[in-house]
Amino acid sequence: MSAAHLSLEESAGFDRSIIDYVQRAAATGLYEIRGLGAKRKVPHFDDLVFLGASLSRYPLEGYREKCSTRTVLGGRYASKPLELEIPITIAGMSFGALSANVKEALGRAASELGTSTTTGDGGMTSEERGSSKTLVYQCLPSRYGFDPDDVRRADAIEIVIGQGAKPGGGGMLLGQKVNPRVARMRTLPEGVDQRSACRHPDWTGPDDLAIKIRELREITDWEKPIYVKVGATRVFNDVKLAVHAGADVVVVDGMQGGTAATQTVFIEHVGIPTLAALRQAVDALDDLNMRGQVQLIISGGIRTGADVAKALAMGADAVSIGQGVLMALGCNSDSYVHNGQHVSAVADYNALGTAPGFCHHCHTGRCPVGVTTQDPVLEQRLQPAIGARRVRNYLKTMNMELTTIARACGKQDVHHLEREDLVALSVEAAAMARVPLAGTQWIPGM
Amino acid sequence: MAHLNQAPALEESVREFDLASTTVRELNRYLHKDLPAADAPRVVVTHPDGAHSIACGLDAPVDVEVHGHVGYYVAGMNKHARVTVHGNAGPGAAENMMSGFVRIRGYASTSAGASARGGCLVIEGDASLRCGISLKGADIVVGGSVGSFSAFMAQAGRMVICGDAGDALGDSLYEAVIYVRGEVKSLGADARFEPMSAEDRKVVAELLGIAGFKHDPAEFRRIASARQLYHWNADANQEY
Ligand code: SF4
Predict the structure, then answer these.
(1) Beta-carbon neighbour count of residue A44 at 10 Å?
(2) How far is CA A399 from CA A113, A144, A165, A415, in A?
(3) Residue A215 to residue B117, Cβ atoms within 8 A
């Protein structure tokens, strides 16, 4: 062995990311806060594949035969359920976390494709109401900017109990994003490091939730669907409680779901994967004999048309997407568009201590591509018309992929995809989704 | 309370809803959609018997009198209306109120005035836990005492407590100000007593006047945020 030999055996337990964590903690005495979702690898929809039609099943002609994607949400008690053209919706993200331009872009794209957008922690902006044909209004523990006029202007109300990135935690918006408009909307001092409540101020527990839902129904004259959104933990019980409380729609957000700012320890270590959560949620609805009456929306790391198809086959009625649409807008891209030209944003990523493809710095308010910022200069990097076109293309692509798979499985309606169409590629995914391991009849634990 | 469920003799222009024989839905539908155009119409509600969501989501300058005890969320998200409950109120009275005036003649349960953004809530008796939690600009005047965690994370607005306060009063306060006349069992994180200024005494006198309570403003103490938790701070020992 030569003297120049470098020993580079990395420890599995104390790998470079753990060493970095320990040294950062030692230097600052403060936990890390960051944006986006869990980065660790967990069993996911990638671990499932479809059994397309062959001799034992009959496919539809891929480019000719109709395959419906129409999706109706919220008809259990609401007199005006939402009728969407596609089962892919845009998840709740706050004005504050996102710029007003982004909110407008999302609204425009969703409206063009006939789907819904959702407000977030911080109230409803005129830009997003104006641009969104169908807008879901979140009722969060913080109640920042919560306004009965907006309740009446909304198309559905979503009571947020928790978020997949941080079940059990409240929202967070660091001072650099609390500009005068955001502060005014949230009734907060400008520049304050805002930490939202994690419990609703006026109710506690599922019995109270039932009464809260009734109040919202009374205020909206029983017209608007009421969603209940939970972060994925004890999903089987939580979904049953939400249904008992009177939800029209239950939204389950898995641990891969994104956030604008949360402690890393929360993002990576609290909650269960979307795949496992989805199966538990469907089981809960089945247990109550409520499939079809109460709709299920799944979110948390849905990225592609294949993910959507798998979610629907597993029993979801629709999906909700946050991080994917941010990436469609340019998140983690190396450039932004200015006057029709691509301009490099690499130096700005570097200034944040990161690079395109690795950024999770939404909490800083210094988004290099103008997506998660309130900075008047940076937010100009994302123009609503360009953003709307990109998100529309992304949603359209996913929807085409979804119908491609549905037709290959012989379905005239994407909602006819079923669990029987799926097998798993790993034992873990087979156990969580409770579908057979590919090439076997084996479902672990059954 | 002798006056429970007994509405005074009504003028012809006053509409009465007897909840022993009609539903809260009918009442609220009327209040939302069918109010006469007349100035300040009046509605009297009898036999509420603890029903929830009475007169919630109002958006007009109507005068609503409820004779009896009410359940959760009376006058929830109120705008413009004047609602009086001649009885006790369940949780969340006048929650998220935007404007108008709500008076509870008896006691109020938990979370009275939660997240209220405007208007005025008067509770003549005591209020339970979390009174004025997440307050966002409304005024709350409590004739009696308040329970623990009152004014938790209160962001803006004013709260006058004529009696005592429980534990953790004003925990994580932002810019709301609390005036308390009696004992405070404990203050919450970042809340502190501050000297009363002439302006504070004027505010207390004004709010006591609106509520109809006769106390000397000089007997009140002011509590506001020390603003030590407004920013992340590595040396703050994570008290938040
Ligand atoms: S590019 Fe912008 S939106 Fe994407 S992770 Fe970085 S800061 Fe967040």
Answers:
(1) 23
(2) 10, 34, 25, 13
(3) no
User: Average per-residue pLDDT in chain A?
Assistant: 94
- CATH code of B12-228, in short, is 2.160.20.60
**A25–chain B Cβ distance below 8 A for any pair:** no
Determine whether A205 is exposed, middle or buried from the number of CB atoms within 10 Å of its CB (0-12, 13-18, 19+).
Answer: exposed
Indicate if ligand 1 lies below 6 Å from the C-beta of A106.
no
Q: What is the least distance, in Å, from the CA of A175 to any CA of chain B?
A: 7
Q: Where are the domains of chain A?
A: 3-34, 45-433
| Cβ-Cβ contacts under 8 Å for A415 (sequence gap 6 or more) | A68, A71, A87, A312, A317
Q: Which amino acid is at B171?
A: D
DSSP β-ladder status, A48-50 and A422-424:
antiparallel
A382, two tokens: 């994302």
Atom of ligand 1 nearest to the CA of A326: 3
- Which stretch of A47-61, A148-162, A406-420 has the lowest confidence by average pLDDT? A47-61
Average pLDDT, chain B: 92
> Count of A–B CB contacts within 8 Å?
107
CATH of domain A45-433: 3.20.20.70
Q: What is the DSSP letter of A129?
A: H
Contact B52 A214 (CB under 8 A): yes
Placement of tokens 């008992």 in the chain: A244
**Ligand 1 contact, A93 CB (< 6 A):** no
Confidence of residue B103 (pLDDT cuts 50, 70, 90): very high
Alpha carbon distance A115, A132 (integer Å): 9
User: Is the Cβ of A219 closer than 8 Å to some Cβ of chain B?
Assistant: yes
Ligand 1 contact, A261 CB (< 6 A) = no
Rounded to two decimals, what is the model's pTM?
0.95
